[in-house]
């Protein structure tokens, strides 16, 4: 099935980013968003994203294309794929699915961007649950290519195949997660690291800024290129991953036993926020996002150049 018209349900941070990507790839895009003033915000977001999308080679068009933006879900009657980006609450997602099913065709895929909810729960009350899956990106999805696909208990296998083909056409890197688990795949990995990053602050082991610097100047340099398994294959030298596991596996296990978890008390939250305030100084969030986005575009080019 060819997708030419995508519905973007929920035009917040993630919806606006998806919409920008889909427009760049030449699709007709209709955004449904109840927020007052959404059309102007979406237009501004797409305009700001466009130079990056061009630099990434995702579009040749000089002028940003624009989506239709409406607060009426009925405008989605003709779409052939839906990317759902509403609030991350199961009752709201189920209501959104019910509202969508009253409007869209029975075989139109509904792909939810949810970071935390299970496809099985989102599809639980659906009339056609077989066309519903999780397609979870990392922020911002127009610049970070991974999208993890998770089927629910009632998702048809060809829904996942169809979604995978769609995201490949969008120049994304789809990952198939074989079992439903909270946090899917990528957020479980980031949560494992973040738990320890918070715990180290709580324990007074290091300041927020130094923990962030340790990652960005240390393992984060490699993580943009390869994951932990391949990294430790290289860490094993000539003996590869087998040597690494035999040689340094026991010290990894000893560290795993030491990792901690601190509750996010109000006091700890204040400490974390103060740490980030000190880290960013007087740079605005907008300026920091723009520097991040420009660097992500350059990084994508470097990765391509070096075969990663
Ligand atoms: N923010 C992230 O880093 C991130 C990353 C990956 C995935 N996600 C997921 O993406 C989804 C959206 O998150 P977000 O960060 O864009 O949140 P957000 O609050 O920026 O956007 C949600 C939008 O949905 C709109 N909305 C509310 N009810 C609606 C309805 N009934 N129909 C249509 N739109 C409705 C809201 O007005 C809001 O603009 C969530 O499921 C979240 O888990 C977020």
From TrEMBL:
Residues annotated as domain 3-hydroxyacyl-CoA dehydrogenase C-terminal: 183-251
Keyword Oxidoreductase included in the entry's annotation: yes
Classification via Pfam families: 3HCDH (PF00725), 3HCDH_N (PF02737)
Residue stretches making up the 3-hydroxyacyl-CoA dehydrogenase NAD binding domain: 5-179
Alphabetic keyword roster: Oxidoreductase
Gene3D superfamilies, alphabetized: N-(1-d-carboxylethyl)-l-norvaline Dehydrogenase, domain 2, NAD(P)-binding Rossmann-like Domain
The protein's name in its UniProt record: 3-hydroxyacyl-CoA dehydrogenase NAD-binding domain-containing protein
Phylogenetic placement of the source organism: Bacteria, Pseudomonadati, Pseudomonadota, Alphaproteobacteria, Rhodobacterales
């Amino acid at each position: 099935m060819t997708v030419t018209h995508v519905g973007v349900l929920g035009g917040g941070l993630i919806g606006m980013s998806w919409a920008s990507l889909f427009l760049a790839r030449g699709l007709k895009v209709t955004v449904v968003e109840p927020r007052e003033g959404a059309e102007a915000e979406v237009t501004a977001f797409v305009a700001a994203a466009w130079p990056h999308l061009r630099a990434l080679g995702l579009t040749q068009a000089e002028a940003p294309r624009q989506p239709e933006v409406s607060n009426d879900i009925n405008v989605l009657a003709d779409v052939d794929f839906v990317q759902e980006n509403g609030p991350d609450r199961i009752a709201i997602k189920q209501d959104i699915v019910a509202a969508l099913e009253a409007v869209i065709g029975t075989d139109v895929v509904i792909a939810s961007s949810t970071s935390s909810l299970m496809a099985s729960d989102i599809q639980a009350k659906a009339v056609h649950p077989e066309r519903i899956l999780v397609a979870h990106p990392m922020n911002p999805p127009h610049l970070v290519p991974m999208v993890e696909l998770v089927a629910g208990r009632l998702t048809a296998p060809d829904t996942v195949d169809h979604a995978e083909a769609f995201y490949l056409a969008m120049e994304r890197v789809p990952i198939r997660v074989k079992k439903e688990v909270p946090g899917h795949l990528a957020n479980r990995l980031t949560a494992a690291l973040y738990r320890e990053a918070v715990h180290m602050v709580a324990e007074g082991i290091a300041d927020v800024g130094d923990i962030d610097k340790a990652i960005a100047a240390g393992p984060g340099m490699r993580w943009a290129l390869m994951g932990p398994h391949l990294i430790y294959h290289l860490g094993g030298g000539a003996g590869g991953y087998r040597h690494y596991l035999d040689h340094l596996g026991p010290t990894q296990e000893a560290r795993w036993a030491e990792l901690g978890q601190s509750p996010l008390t109000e006091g700890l939250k204040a400490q974390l926020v103060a740490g980030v305030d000190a880290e960013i100084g007087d740079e605005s969030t907008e300026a920091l996002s723009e520097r991040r986005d420009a660097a992500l575009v350059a990084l994508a080019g470097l990765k391509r150049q070096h075969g990663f």
